[in-house]
């Protein structure tokens, strides 16, 4: 499960739906895996406005990953400053270090095994082989 996915998941228990502490789900005992992928600058530019930045920073801090900046990067932060010798407008812009770091955290870092814990009710969702189990027992539906 990519870390990006955690930015869109909340607790499935009905009583947690109205509680702000049910988001984000907090990884516990997480075994991380890096899955190499090509950097797609356009994807990063388009996903930035959809991210819950403060919550993403919390998850990244809990996992002990490199700290994200306090404010969400702008599109300009994702492109490396152009060199004066490369003036061809048809080539794709080079990604900045910020873009590379975001790509590494959001796309390449995956939770392989562990648990996702609701901050409101404490319910734990198991993650096995990169897949989270969100099926609830009958008494919690």
TrEMBL record:
Stretches for region Disordered: 74-98
Q: Give a GO molecular function annotation for the protein.
A: protein heterodimerization activity
Q: What is the lineage of its organism?
A: Eukaryota, Fungi, Dikarya, Ascomycota, Pezizomycotina
Q: What is this protein called in UniProt?
A: Trm112p-domain-containing protein
Q: Which GO terms describe its biological process?
A: rRNA (guanine-N7)-methylation; tRNA methylation
Output compositional bias ranges, type Low complexity. 81-96
Which Pfam families does the UniProt entry name for this protein? Trm112p (PF03966)
Locate the transmembrane regions by residue number: none
What family does this belong to? Belongs to the TRM112 family.
């Amino acid at each position: 499960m990519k870390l990006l996915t955690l930015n869109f998941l909340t607790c499935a228990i009905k009583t947690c739906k109205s509680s702000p502490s049910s988001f984000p789900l907090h990884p516990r005992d997480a075994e991380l895996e890096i899955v190499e992928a090509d950097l797609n600058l356009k994807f990063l530019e388009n996903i930035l406005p959809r991210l819950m930045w403060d919550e993403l920073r919390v998850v990244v801090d809990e996992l002990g990953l490199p700290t994200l900046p306090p404010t969400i990067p702008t599109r300009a932060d994702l492109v490396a400053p152009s060199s004066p010798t490369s003036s061809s407008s048809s080539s794709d812009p080079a990604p900045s270090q910020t873009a590379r770091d975001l790509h590494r955290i959001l796309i390449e870092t995956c939770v392989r095994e562990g648990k996702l814990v609701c901050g409101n009710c404490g319910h734990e969702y198991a993650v096995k082989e990169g897949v989270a189990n969100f099926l609830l027992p009958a008494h919690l539906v």
